[in-house]
Amino acid sequence: MGLLTPEDIARLTEAIPPDTSAVIVLLEHAWIVKLTEGLNRAGAVLLAGGVWYHSLLWSSLKQN
Q1: Does the pLDDT at position 25 exceed 50?
Q2: What 3 state SS string does the chain have?
Q3: Is the pLDDT of residue 33 over 70?
Q4: Would the pTM count as exceeding 0.85?
Q5: In the chain, domain spans
């Protein structure tokens, strides 16, 4: 089973209103595999992961 299931695709297509267009992007960060392997070899634990969106990062920097 992959990360994106047929059910996921069905839900995404149902969310797009008729007579409209949408772009769905699935992005894989291949470098994370090497990072995870290195952390595992070092006995480390990754506590959190995620994506920072430009708008959130920019507004956070402007507040500080």
Answers
A1: yes
A2: CCCCCHHHHHHHHHHCCCCCCCCCCCCCCCHHHHHHHHHHHCCCCCCCCCCCCHHHHHHHHHHC
A3: yes
A4: no
A5: 6-63
